């Protein structure tokens, strides 16, 4: 089919080449960005006297009509168009006639695609952020509900020290809060307009790039025209941020999967967010958490795909860069679906407090507190650590725990120990005394919840 860019060639490309070259089936999702970008461009051309005001009015009205018709479903995307930019221009010219051909003065499709994707990704960040906030807020609510629920805290997946479930949940809230921060940093760096780079070298027309940038909500313009059309670092940065966010959700998913197992039985997911097995009637599978964990690999793949595409590309635009969109769109769609499902899964999740407490009682997780008890009675920490370790070993030999280890035996291990030791090493005391900022005590967790809620405002 003959192309708008027919000139040097007759533009009669083979159907096979057209299909291979075409990106409309995925870049059509940037139709709004493309049209609003073109409106700003027409306005700039008129302001600078490059086209007349009357011509700009015709172009802008025409573009407005195309936008309305796409949104109402009256206008379908033409699968034979090369991409969304050509499609909009083709329809415009068909509708308004000759003046439509003036729109592309002082710009290039290389600028357009770099512009559209920036506007598009910027608005996706604005979509993701409130969703993440909703998830963090759901976490804060859960943490509030379970702020006094004692569970074992782990290192090396070995029971380490008692913590509260609320404390554990708030750890993820903090991580996700940083994810919001990263997205906002990314948005700020992305928000510079490439329009007017004119393919690569700038233009001889007296354009006003800053006027156009301001109209489109940018904070400024790309200061080097080659850079403006060549880089996709903003998309990589966004995918990196999304990958970190998915890594957080994946670790959380892994814990939810473990906690849902019969071996742990720490949490119960609601029926609405689990599945059954087609053969094993007893099963209740944490599929949503597993899928989030699995989709994390997919998002990393999207990110690596674009890194690899861009590696070694010479300046300026190369058609390879058309490959940026499917990866970044997929990463975004995936992360949005994961955040949405996660928020609901967390809100409806219940903790099994007895099992958490039972697990906390079994693993000598108050041994640090026994050592601290001795330190408070004058022993250096290393010596206290050694005595406590010996007591734990003796408990294991004699089949008891620190909480019911006989006082005579305690005294034999160290004459500093008195009968207040039992109070000092009770799980409740262990948790309650951890009042250091950021610690696991109810008071500390309450502060963390208040901090996070404040940040969400
Ligand atoms: N569809 C292209 C892309 O996504 C638009 C830019 C094409 N520019 C060009 N000179 N062929 O990257």
Architecture overview:
The protein is mainly alpha-helical. It contains 19 helices and six strands. It is 62% helix and 5% strand. The chain has a two-stranded antiparallel sheet with strand order 1-2. Strands 3-4 form a two-stranded parallel ribbon. Strand 1 and strand 2 form a beta hairpin. The two termini are 54 Å apart. The mean pLDDT is 96. Bound molecules: arginine. Residues 23, 27, 83, 109-110, 113, 317, 319, 321-322 line the site of arginine. Arginine is lined by residues 23, 27, 83, 109-110, 113, 317, 319, 321-322.
Summarize the helices and strands and which ones pair or pack.
Elements: H1 15-21, H2 24-27, H3 31-47, H4 53-72, H5 84-96, H6 109-145, E1 150-155, E2 158-164, H7 165-190, E3 192-193, H8 209-215, E4 220-221, H9 225-230, H10 233-260, E5 267-268, H11 287-310, H12 324-347, E6 350-351, H13 353-362, H14 367-376, H15 381-398, H16 407-413, H17 421-424, H18 427-432, H19 442-456
Parallel strand pairs: 3-4
Antiparallel strand pairs: 1-2, 5-6
Helix pairs in contact: 3-4, 3-6, 3-8, 4-5, 6-7, 6-12, 6-19, 7-10, 7-19, 10-11, 10-12, 11-12, 14-15
The structure holds arginine.
